[in-house]
Amino acid sequence: MITLFLLMKVDTIIVGFGIAGLNYAEQLRKRKKSFIVIAPVSESASHLAAGIINPTVLKRINPVWRSEAFLNYALDFYIDLEGLVKTNIFHPLPIYRIFNNVVEQNNWSVAASSIPLKKYLNKKLILSQKYNGIKAPFHYGEVTKSARVDNQSLITHYRDSVIPDQSITEKIDHQAIEIKDDFIQYKNIKAHKIVFCEGYHSVKNPFFKYLPLVGSKGEILIIQCDSLVEEVIFKGPIFLSPMGNHRFWVGATFERTDKTTQITSKGKEWLLIKLKQFLKLPYQILEHKAQIRATVIDRRPLLGRHPKYHNVYLLNGVGTRGVLMSPLLSQWLFDFIENKVNLPEEADIKRFEKQYFRN
Length: 359
Hints:
Elements: E1 8-15, H1 19-30, E2 35-38, H2 45-48, E3 52-53, E4 56-57, E5 62-63, H3 67-85, E6 90-92, E7 95-98, H4 102-112, E8 121-126, E9 140-143, E10 147-149, H5 151-162, E11 167-168, E12 177-179, E13 184-186, E14 189-196, E15 216-224, E16 233-235, E17 239-244, E18 247-251, H6 265-276, E19 284-293, E20 302-305, E21 312-316, H7 322-339, H8 353-358
Parallel strand pairs: 1-2, 1-14, 2-11, 7-16, 14-21
Antiparallel strand pairs: 3-10, 4-5, 6-10, 7-9, 8-9, 12-13, 13-14, 15-18, 15-19, 16-17, 17-18, 20-21
Helix pairs in contact: 1-7, 3-5, 3-7
């Protein structure tokens, strides 16, 4: 961790250090590019997320957009990161989708036989009696290529042990950023470029406030349940994901109007009602928290270059798929910036360029 005194020259300033900022930092570190991370230590949406790598949309039993590319890249990326931070942050775990009726069973069987999904879904049902304490009268469907990443541990250990001299723990002052033709000046830092990875905080970023970052509030619970197995992520009306030491992540709510990080009795009650529908074991509530996800109006990430400033870039809008998508998105952005490789049109912020000039 460093403080600002002497003039410092780097290739890139990274603003924000959730899972997106970390992944872009790792792209730069692997290629020996100099960089500085500027972000407060305060909890972000990434710290609060379950960290589930899931290539499927379980509600509709569809594959995620570009699921295979994102999944294959992410699995190798986090295994490498685990070795780098020397901490167990990557946990391959199946997801068990709880069925509510025979129709859902049949839909699963059809999806598991389809070309896009057969590589992820086990066509054979998992019998409900395999696990005590979970109400699953119509059994389970298994997602086989899934995992959990301990976001909080990864972010903390990466910052403290991998980039301790490349991290400034302060909130960025956007007004202090000077954009020149051939460099960026922020206080005593001079850089070739700046990449904003601020999550929902980007709504206050004067360079990118024109983008439709709508955000959705998520409330979660952390519970202690000593009798529940820790080898499976359960998916009923909500997720129940192990965190180690018999602690479990329960969530999350989706609230699109309340943009505060205050926990609510309404959110807690909703979570408990949903949890009661499938968990039959006694448990203790340890924590109740809330954060704002960086969701986008068209449900696609936000990558690219500012319409006016050629050295100002963005990596954002990963929403609930941040752990799955951020590794490959960060490579796409790196290749776009450094190697002039075009971004996929669906993710490029050029799709909203008219909005910038309209403002």
